[in-house]
Amino acid sequence: MSLTREDLQSIGELLDVKLEPIHEDIGTLKSDVGTLKSDVGTLKSDMVEVKDRLTNVENRVTSIDNRLDNVENRVTSIDNRLDNVENHVTSIDNRLDNVENRVTSIDNRLDNVENRVTNIDLNIENKIIPQIQLLSEGQEGIIKRLDNLEELPSKVDDIQTNLEVLTYAFKEHIREPVHH
Question: Is position 123 within any domain?
């Protein structure tokens, strides 16, 4: 069996009719694929923009992370410095406690000295000054006696002279015969 040209043409027309919806579908598919390609291009463009923005966000996060590391290092440094200050304050507190103890000791010793000075003042006022006054009054008597002692040598000379005269007279009286 051999097909004629007409048969082939008829088959071709039939196929054309049958294939026409497929052609239309293919056309629609091609249009849809074109739209898809355009949408994919837009998506690619959007993805590039998203990637750029994401890279920008990553860079900012890295910058923030670096800044946070820097802040953390500074906080650690400040914390260390505060520990050092705290140690110094503790040392100063200890030294101030020592100074307070020494001042308290000095205050106690000063109170003791003040009590002793008060006792000394009372002793001076009640015992020593009256004794000094008595000594002073006694001294006046001694001074008067000393003044009298200054006259003593001349009185001794007078007495010696009188004694010599009496001795001479007595000797003379003994040599003279007694007249009865």
Answer: yes
